[in-house]
Amino acid sequence: MILIISSNDDISTNEVIDWIDYYGAAYKRISADHPILVHQLSYSEQGIDLSFSAGDHYFKWDDIQAVWYRRSYVHLTEFNIRYVTSEPFDRAINHQLFLESKLLHEAFWNILGRKSINTEQGNQLNKLVVLERCRHYGISIPESLVTSSKKDLIHFFDKHRGNIITKNFSPGIFIRNDHGFLSSQTQMVTKEMIESMDDFFHPVLVQQNISKAFELRIFFLLGEFYASAIFSQNDKKTQLDFRNYNWEKPNRTPTFQLPYEVQHKLAKLMNHIDLNSGSIDMLVDKSGNYFFLEVNPVGQFKQVSAPCNYNLEKIIAEKLINGLL
Fold this sequence. Notes:
It is a single chain. The chain is of the alpha+beta class. The protein has three domains: about 1-125, no CATH class; about 130-140 and about 210-295, ATP-grasp fold, B domain (D-amino Acid Aminotransferase, Chain A, domain 1, 2-Layer Sandwich), CATH 3.30.470.20; about 145-210, Dna Ligase, domain 1, CATH 3.30.1490. Helix content is about 30%, strand content about 30%. The protein has helices at about 10-25, 85-110, 125-135, 150-160, 190-195, 260-270, 300-305, 310-320, and strands spanning about 1-5, 25-30, 35-45, 45-55, 55-60, 65-70, 115, 145-150, 165, 175, 180-185, 185-190, 200-210, 210-220, 225-230, 255, 275-285, 290-295. A five-stranded antiparallel sheet has the order 16-15-14-17-18. Helix 1 packs across helix 8 (about 310-320). The radius of gyration is 23 Å and the shape is globular.
């Protein structure tokens, strides 16, 4: 049986499940809407044993052939105390219960991760730490600065002759209300923008804006790379951030053979940050140099799969059915 942990509205999950159904394999899909109750987590000289329930589903470790963490999260059933002696006492006890639940959550994923494409912990990746690790593995990145100081921001701006961009270093933002939605994208930093800022402000990430020949979106899955070039630089709407899609005249996104040396370095990085799957963004400058931008552990892969005929949904389904082989 295949265990899939994903939000209920994720289209990519549905498309992988279509292939699992086509092959006639058994699966169960759960999300944060299904609180998990751990029935047994045992350790002995014979090995480990795990059993748990989520909603109406009961799972035994030996029955799970593979796990796919796509989106959502695992929510352990909470057991809090109320009104034992006093409110401070209750808070202290409940905090202790929370800490133990947190440790159990980590142990739970430590086991599931042995058969899983990614884990919930992997989705909490720190982009700034990843940028630092790139240097360790010889992967080029745009010169980057996180600062709260207007003075330091001006120095960085002048150093790069006003050619810098800003982007979020958190997973991003998407807020919807009755008037529309707010999302984060890469933006050029202007002199006027800096002048309007206070002397000190919430930390921001700014980077050198590299003149690119094209971008790369690379889907990494269990040691294999599936790459697509994105010719976004020829369209003013997409040249800074291809996610600002031009639906009337889409960017060309052909297949791309990633050089072995780049694959080797990226594989080392992904292994170091404990990800066996993820969507990697890179760019290639006009001199042919490769620059790493970021990796999204649960990034969309359809924009690589469909235009390049990789059929990644089928590949993921087959990996799960075959126990990730």
